[in-house]
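Worked example 4.2. Below are the chains of a multi-component assembly; read each line carefully before continuing.
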Amino acid sequence: MTRFVDVPALTQLLQRKGVAPFMKDLADCLREDFLRWEDFDKSARVASHSEVGVIELMPVADDRLFAFKYVNGHPRNTAAGLPTVMAFGVLADVATGVPRLLSELTILTAIRTAAMSALAARRLARAQSRVMAIIGNGAQSEFQAIAFRDLVGIRELRLFDVDAAATAKLAANLVGQGLKVTICSGTADAVRGADIVTTLTADKQLATIITPAMIEPGMHLNAVGGDCPGKTELDRGVLEGAAVFVEYEPQSRIEGEIQQMAADFEVTEFWRVLTGEKPGRTSAAQVTVFDSVGFALEDFSALHFARDAAAELDIGSIIELVPRSTDPKNLFGALGIEAPAGAARKVPTPAGANLAHFG
Amino acid sequence: MTRFVDVPALTQLLQRKGVAPFMKDLADCLREDFLRWEDFDKSARVASHSEVGVIELMPVADDRLFAFKYVNGHPRNTAAGLPTVMAFGVLADVATGVPRLLSELTILTAIRTAAMSALAARRLARAQSRVMAIIGNGAQSEFQAIAFRDLVGIRELRLFDVDAAATAKLAANLVGQGLKVTICSGTADAVRGADIVTTLTADKQLATIITPAMIEPGMHLNAVGGDCPGKTELDRGVLEGAAVFVEYEPQSRIEGEIQQMAADFEVTEFWRVLTGEKPGRTSAAQVTVFDSVGFALEDFSALHFARDAAAELDIGSIIELVPRSTDPKNLFGALGIEAPAGAARKVPTPAGANLAHFG
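Applying the procedure described above to all two chains together yields the following structure tokens:
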């Protein structure tokens, strides 16, 4: 009834299909869903903020499927050996409300984000882009590197992270992946000469990772790390000098890099570029920015793609998250609870005597 | 890390603890949470409506725990042998975002609703109430009967449902429960002489199950079935002649019986009665109405109560819904995916050649 793809099951799915082919096929799936953008009931995420982080619910639906994602953002979790971002999601039938898939989305989010970034860069970066700087070498960086290798044609990476161990980890994980890797001494050094700059920093703060002085004509910026109120990576001057593309404008105005800009700062929703309604890059010298915050539709795509892949390989388990009732009106009977012998004796004293209990 | 209480596990929990004691203890838990009402970050549910039903997400949090519930409402599901309402929920730590419990909430919702109804009736119905009419004898009716028996002192039930089979099912399930059961020929017949009238009808429409002519002085109405826009059970004349109590006013104005009334129609949030800030019933002749729609805080209570009970009896299973990563920055490494032998050969042709693929 409901398929459950937990972390080990998703790992098995990625091992069986391969991370690179999985992301390539998912990118096709994302593209197909973004092309039918107007079929979806889109609403901004519901966020519950605390002093140390945020927990969000991101719902989206078309006329057949309802999906939502649970995701947290807790920058200090790393110190406790926990991921800063953890997620899971559900896909349900609109016609009956039956949940069809429960899946981990922590790994899947990193993968759909990388696939989405590469899909956008295919339209926004210069066609012959070969060199990419990756600023922030944490959990998402390997997936971005592989997606840009296979979907954009990136051959050389220039890495920087304030945490040298993170950069060493990324470089080690990329050995044998057919990418030339250079470890850089700072952001400016890494960005210099890059065709594409991907920012994946995680601090929940208004940061200025990329300044106008670092920008070169024709660069494409894939700004992934700034994705909630009070969290940005680009100097506003960078945005002022670029053509900025977003996923869902109402959400990006609140959560994206453009939260720094006036409400009338011009942006283009990326789906309009896919449909051909709006142009993408208009010249080789233009600076383009994909101000990515992660939109529920991307999780919708990831969930139904994962559901089909898991079903095809019969990965995961079938769980009874909701009752498989033969008589929906007899929830009680289905519990198989016998009437207590001498139940009458078990009936407590009258209400009056119990009032104190509820005082 | 995350405990999973599926339908069989919750059934086992109820069999081990007993439905009646479970509801009695849950009512205490509900009362404690309602007494600290102002500690909670309350938001109305997020609803996704379709022609045949609705799917909702109901979030609520205090400074320690975040909870949400997924619940659908599809009246026509019964014809397909599916419950009209199915639900599950999650409890997570606000400090880290780690999900601690995933639980079925279909059965648990019927139980928390009955416990909440009884908790309200303890304060709003006449102290010596002994006779209850139950209009609508579906999935929730047994739980309401047992909760009112143990928490309010009800000894006699008068049953009616347009579906005689549902009434027969309820009567059969209540054999040996120490309750005198009378099957009635209609709503007016069932309501006549009752101290408390519980309405549990399920049609998604503006219905008039209870009319002013049926009301007797001193009656308490436990109106549970009307719980979404366009779904009511009471004639507005009944509300005009009664003191009306609700869970969370902003939500009840949209979803409750009071959706029929003017925005300034006076209602009292029940928590204010529990704290003593507002009076409950003020005379033996007064007609009181608990206009119950089901509020997220009730699921919050049900979830942490179920979590503790399941942990105590070690019921359910531990699942890996999110990664137990030792190095949160190395999601990729944790996948255990080896670099492909001769990965370089696998690198596809440059972007230019692939553009057609992304058209």
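Take a moment to check your reading of the output against the notes. The two ends of chain B are 44 Å apart (CA to CA). Residues 341-359 of chain B have pLDDT under 50 and may be disordered.
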